[in-house]
Amino acid sequence: MRERLLKPFRAKGGVRVPHHKNTANLQSVVMPPPKQVVIPMLQHIGAPCKPTVKAGDKVLVGQVIGDTEAYMAAPVHASVSGTVKEITSILMPSGAPVEAVVIESDGRMEKADCAPPDVGTKENFLKAVRASGLVGLGGAGFPAHVKLNVPPDKEVDTLIVNAAECEPYITSDHREILENSWSVLSGVYAVKELLGIQRVIIAIENNKPDAIQLLSEIAGKEYDPKNEVRVMALKSVYPQGAEKILIRSCTGRKVPPGKLPADVGCIVMNVTSVAFLAQYLKTGLPLVSKRITVDGSAVQNPQNVIVPIGTSVSDVIGFCGGYKETPKKILYGGPMMGTALSDDRFPVLKQNNAVLAFGEKEAKLKEPSACIRCGCCMYVCPMNLLPVSLAQASEAKDMDKLEKYRVMTCIECGCCSYVCPANRHILQAIRLGKQYYKEHGKAGK
Amino acid sequence: MTEKLYVSSSPHFRGKNSTARIMGNVLIALIPAVVAGTILFGWRVLLIVAFCNVSCVLLEYLCRKVMKRENTIGDLSAMVTGTLLALSLPVTIPLALAFFGCAVAIVVAKQFFGGLGQNFINPAVTGRVAMAVSFPSQMTDWSLLNGALDAVTAATPRAPDGQWTYLDLFLGNVNGSVGETCKIAILAGFVYLTVRRVINPIIPVLYVGSVAALSPLFGQDPLFEVLSGGLLFVAVFMATDYVTSPLSMKGKAIYAVGLGVITILIRVYASLPECVSFAVMLMNILTPHIDRLTVPKPFGASA
């Protein structure tokens, strides 16, 4: 086992956040189909899909209900069997309106005809990945077939499987490794073979010793005689799982601002994405359900739940025993980078890995006071930026300073706001600055 | 659902650090200096410290009230200023003059510029310099209230005449500002602040180090230069002020060496007391420029 463990490179910055991995030792539970699911047509970065069904249509689990001609997209599938009730427009947590298909479940979960896809060539493999509806399941929702379609001029030698899971509370990737370890490995080999990648690094934060040991053991020599698949135990420092930081920790390479991992010879895939891909190649059943961590001070029975995509947050929390106290903040994802919801009727999306509900005590933010220039934000910034100066430039809408301090390099990890002794909303200001820069910046930059 | 939810930009959790906690740690780090000052110079030290604290907090409260801004005395920064100022005064200082110093520090140097975080010069240093130039004789009246030495008209610790030993200088058994003479107490505060990660040791270490390294070039005794005057106290508690020192490590290094150079130049070529305070004020003014020249290179960027 020892020799399969790689030593990580040191990355700068980051913060030690409390882990709160309360659900790490609980077996995931499959949630029965809810009465109704709402499936948005945009669950990825890129162009939204168009509904391919209409009200009254009967649908089966895994049937395509939305697709588009656009390249930067992934099709959307029915997650329950039943009848399409309506095609409607809903607001996403960001406030953007999006089309959604509402399906009334018949409770039978009948599957559409699924057959293992033909993945003989790279072209067919990418087609199959697109057809599976897979997007980056770590949270970003980047269409997987786009990520895996590396331009021929870029040579990728390393596949990094991201199992860092550095956000507090979330344990869905951890449970995926423990419960589906063989899928993880066969997914790793599938991607490795089809893209001709020499080495694979499965990167896990060292607060998950059981996952590290399990994967190191089963990635043993019988299956991997050339010792090309290795496990790396990373320090538990947030944001270890952020793509650029992960690449730095795993390979020592730095992705320059505005560049992609492929520019430094790497592809990073979330561990659950990899495991899903293996299952899809075996069964042909597209992405219709998702394991999410349901936790937080306001949830009665925190646990990992496998839910049909489109299930409402209130149904999911209802399945976990309901609210223990009046919820004051509900999040998609973890407390560091998650999105706050204005309501618990939002549907669970493909790329969600957690739904957290908190009571008044955790939810309430402290009032910001004056910046004392302590520099903490700067010391923890993994991108080596000057968050305080960026926030000031954002507030002043100072284009020259936003440019000089490289506002677009910010990965929005939130370490700056987390450490700020004056409770200033530094990242919020920087986000506004990024938006301003995009709208008013020099073209082509 | 009927209950309204909080919606905010991530991160949704915050660390436990706070401005009051940082300032509280600085106050704790100053306790040894207060205790040592009281032992060396007598009970009046406590009176001066208490008086300056009350004055600073009161002035801060009134300023914010008059300016119709939110009350900020809870962040404890006024108490830090008051304590620092008190510890840099001679034990004989009349309370009215101490009040003048507090007013300059809090009202002029701090609140006129917008309060904590906006002042470009350290308030305590400003108050101290204003007192030194306005009341030079009272500020250098190094008479002792009690202690081993009864020589009231003894030389100031910046003018050795063979009367002091290094040990005296180190233990603080000399005349001087009440909090500045006992180097052990200052070092205890330095260790505390460093261990609690309130300050980065780079500024005090490089400041004191550069003074020591430069003194032989000017024909001075490095050990005496380091142990005499207010150097150690200012290096640990005033030069490290977040608001008025550069952000980046490189910036802090430039700032600290600049302090060392100015200090030694004033000590050798000028006849001013308060050389370290003037050095801090000068470098405070340069801080925004140092910050501008030392923007760190972003992750993965080539330039």
Short description:
The complex is a heterodimer of chains A (445) and B (303). Chain A has helices spanning 122-131, 144-148, 172-179, 181-195, 209-218, 243-251, 271-283, 313-319, 360-363, 376-380, 387-395, 399-404, 415-419, 426-440; strands at 5-6, 29-30, 36-40, 50-51, 58-59, 64-67, 76-77, 82-91, 97-105, 158-163, 199-205, 229-234, 266-270, 289-295, 303-308, 329-332, 339-341, 354-358. Chain A is of the alpha/beta class.
Structural commentary:
The complex is a heterodimer of chains A (445) and B (303). Chain A is an alpha/beta fold and 445 residues long. Among the domains of chain A are: 2-24 and 116-283, Rossmann fold, CATH 3.40.50; 376-440, no CATH class. Helices cover 27% and strands 20% of the residues of chain A. In chain A, the strands form 4 sheets. Chain A has a 6-stranded mixed beta sheet, sandwiched between helices. In chain A, helix 4 (181-195) crosses helix 7 (271-283) and helix 11 crosses helix 14 (426-440). The N and C termini of chain A lie far apart (47 Å). With 303 residues, chain B is mostly helical. The relative contact order of chain B is 0.11. Helix content of chain B is 58%, strand content 0%. Residues 145-156 of chain B have low confidence and may be disordered. The longest helix of chain B has 23 residues, at 19-41. In chain B, helix 1 (19-41) runs antiparallel to helix 2 (44-66). Chain B is globular, with a radius of gyration of 20 Å. The interface between A and B is large, with 69 and 38 residues.
